[in-house]
Design a protein that fits this description.
It is a single chain. The chain is α/β, with parallel strands linked by helices. The chain has helices at about 100-115, 130-140, 165-180, 195-205, 245-260, 275-285, 295-300, 305-315, and strands at about 30, 35, 40-45, 65, 85, 90-95, 120-125, 145-150, 185-190, 210-215, 220, 225, 230, 235-240, 270, 290-295. An eight-stranded parallel β-barrel has the order 3-4-7-8-9-10-15-16, surrounded by six helices. Helix 2 (about 130-140) packs parallel to helix 3, helix 3 packs parallel to helix 4 and helix 4 (about 195-205) crosses helix 5.
């Protein structure tokens, strides 16, 4: 999952954001809902811990942003049994939103995250509307930079994806969280399992979403042929990884068009199977303002910094000065 097949990628992390040989300055920064990111590469929720876990392996300060693990009002131990299962071209997970709870996050984890440098996006999850709202109130008073409202997690039996499958329910929870978190830009994370993704997205924007991120994992499963039982105690899990990238890319492209046609334009953050610079470029060309990298980090902890370097090299060789020039939707 590296950029070894990409002639435009240096392969190391040197000279990121630095113009070579006094050439024109290349600006990788993007602004989403008023928040400036040094580059469009963001660590996806649930795949990067709280950031400090990777600080001894890769240069976390180079990232544009970090999404926290899915945070709930009270601590969660997550699902029982096997929680990770590899598949050809992908990864199944059913972690179940294991996290320390928002109060403990604010006290113990957030101060350490603030020292890392990237934009901090708190991924807010819940099992009920009240839990979402009370969590949003606490995050609104904190120093996180943005909130990502997770109404798309397929790995919990209550809340999560249930809020993101119907436009009315999605709009209602978005509006409620918006009222509770007026001080923070609000991203809504959408489910690819929704019957009408564009309708739900537009409803969320009208309800107060400042940006949208998609896609979360696809609902899937695996069966152990030896025990002749489902692998997961939870039966189903979420599929991520390279296998979902072409589908996720198509969804980002179609959502961009739907938002444009409905005159409800907000930034879209692309997620799904991004493993290298070419993948990130495709999403940016499709209209995404930024990208989130998830399971690829497990196989190569330097994936995100390699992509940042690759974007810089691509822009340099293409004589581009701003990241928005990559999009083919502006032509």
């Amino acid at each position: 999952m590296t950029d070894n097949n990409n002639p435009s990628v240096n392969g190391n992390n040197e000279n990121i954001n630095e113009p070579p040989n006094n050439e024109k300055k290349i600006d990788l920064s993007v602004t989403i809902a008023g928040v400036r990111f040094k580059n469009p590469v963001i660590a996806a929720s649930g795949t990067f811990g709280m950031g400090s876990e990777y600080s001894g392996i890769t240069d976390v300060s180079l990232l544009g942003g970090i999404c926290t693990k899915g945070l709930t009002l009270t601590p969660r131990t997550g699902n029982s049994g096997i929680r990770i299962w590899e598949t050809p071209g992908g990864l199944l997970n059913t972690i179940g939103l294991e996290n320390p709870g928002i109060p403990a996050f604010l006290e113990r984890e957030l101060p350490k995250m603030k020292e890392l440098g990237p934009v901090i996006i708190a991924n807010l999850s819940g099992a009920s509307a009240d839990e979402y709202i009370n969590g949003a109130v606490m995050l609104n008073k904190s120093s996180v930079d943005m909130i990502e409202l997770n109404i798309s997690c397929p790995n919990v039996k209550a809340g999560g994806m249930l809020f993101g499958l119907d436009s009315g329910t999605a709009a209602a929870i978005t509006a409620a969280v918006r009222r509770a978190s007026r001080n923070k830009p609000l991203i809504v994370k959408l489910s690819p399992n929704a019957p009408s993704l564009s309708a739900i997205a537009i409803a969320c924007v009208k309800a107060g979403a400042d940006a949208l991120s998609l896609v979360n994992t696809f609902k899937a499963m695996a069966i152990d042929t030896v025990s002749r039982k489902p692998v997961f105690d939870n039966i189903t899990a979420g599929l991520s990884g390279p296998a979902i990238k072409p589908i996720a890319l198509r969804m980002v492209w179609e959502l961009y068009d739907a938002l444009d046609n409905a005159s409800t334009n907000v930034p879209v953050i692309g997620i799904g199977g991004i493993t290298c610079t070419e993948d990130a470029l495709e999403f940016l060309m499709a209209g995404a303002a930024a990208v989130q990298i998830g399971s690829a980090t497990f196989s190569n902890p330097h994936t995100m910094t390699n992509i940042i370097n690759g974007l810089y090299q691509y822009m340099s060789k293409s004589n581009m000065s701003g990241i928005n020039e990559i999009s083919i939707r502006n032509k």
